[in-house]
Design a protein that fits this description.
The radius of gyration is 22 Å and the shape is globular. The chain has a single domain, classed as Rhopdopsin 7-helix transmembrane proteins, CATH 1.20.1070.10. The chain is mostly helical. The longest helix has about 35 residues. About 75% of the residues lie in helices and about 5% in strands.
């Protein structure tokens, strides 16, 4: 096929989550509330960490960035899904589809590395507590954060340089609520089986590498805590429990989508919803409910707000 015939498809049709109008109205209300909670919840965590001096530490600096990344990741796909519930024909332009793919993998890849950085922070805090302030200084944190964004960008670009150049001459139906590589590759005019394996392996390799590093880090931390049952170590272990929960919630759907695709439509859609909506929603809940420092910061904020209102 010559290069001039590679851009016949100018837009794709998103089939969405369901075809029932009553179910779409119900989903519209549910996901609008969930997305609003995601945005407000993650913004609240970021603002709280910025204004509360007690939270000005490497761990909470990284947590604020995780909340920011979660909000961005959900914003790539969820607003489009919500507005599409009001439309009979759910279309997305070719450029819009490619942008969704790029930002999902850019932000998602960056979040994977950021979770590894957070595990490294906990490793230093528990296993090398005397050197923690020296190792995890602000400059090191910023450097690790830049590295996570850089790796996410390189990962996304490695995908885009291939998928953008594929010829798309029909069909144009994407059986989901957003564009993702496994679904869009199937719409290419070329034989997509081998390419699909390669592209999924690329995403799966990053996910599995980060997941294995996280397992090693937290296993080492747990072994260290088991040998040293001091109160400080136990307190750090409580924080690690929240981190491990987030890791399982984030990497579980990702690994199934890219490493062991089930090719069952409703399962793929559920995993996509879990990855793009539920995980960014659960992260602030997990950190808020399990973190005593965050709870105390909320109490201090409430107290200061009440005092301010009383004096004004």
């Amino acid at each position: 096929m010559d290069k001039g015939n590679q851009s016949i498809v100018r837009e794709f049709v998103l089939l969405g989550l369901c075809h029932s109008w009553s179910m779409q109205v119900l989903f519209l209300m549910i996901f609008f509330i969930l997305y609003l909670t995601i945005v407000l919840g993650n913004i609240a965590i970021v603002i709280l960490i910025i204004i509360d001096l007690h939270l000005h530490s490497p761990m909470y600096f990284l947590l604020a960035n995780l909340s920011f990344v979660d909000m961005l990741l959900s914003s790539v796909t969820t607003p489009k899904m919500i507005t599409d519930f009001l439309r009979e024909m759910k279309t997305i332009s070719f450029g819009g589809c490619m942008c969704q793919i790029f930002f999902v993998h850019f932000i998602g890849g960056g979040e994977m590395v950021l979770l590894v950085v957070m595990a490294y922070d906990r490793y230093v805090a528990i296993c090398k507590p005397l050197h923690y302030s020296t190792i995890m200084n602000l400059q090191k944190c910023i450097g690790l954060l830049v590295a996570s964004w850089t790796i996410g960008f390189v990962h996304a670009m490695s995908q885009m340089t291939v998928i953008v150049q594929l010829p798309y001459c029909g069909p144009r139906e994407v059986d989901s609520f957003f564009c993702d590589i496994p679904l869009v590759i199937k719409l290419s005019c070329r034989d997509s089986y081998t390419l699909g394996i390669f592209m999924n392996a690329d995403s799966g390799l990053l996910a599995m590498t980060c997941f294995i590093l996280l397992l090693i880090s937290y296993t080492y931390i747990l072994l260290t805590v088991q040998q040293n049952s001091k109160s400080g170590a136990l307190k750090a272990l409580s924080t690690c429990t929240a981190h491990i929960t987030v890791v399982i919630l984030f990497f579980g759907p990702t690994i199934f989508i890219y490493m062991w695709p089930l090719s069952i439509t409703w399962v793929d859609k559920f995993l996509a919803v879990f990855y793009s909506v539920l995980t960014p929603l659960l992260n602030p809940c997990i950190y808020t409910l399990r973190n005593k420092e965050i709870k105390n910061a909320i109490k201090r904020f409430r107290s200061n707000y009440i005092d301010f209102k009383a004096n004004s």
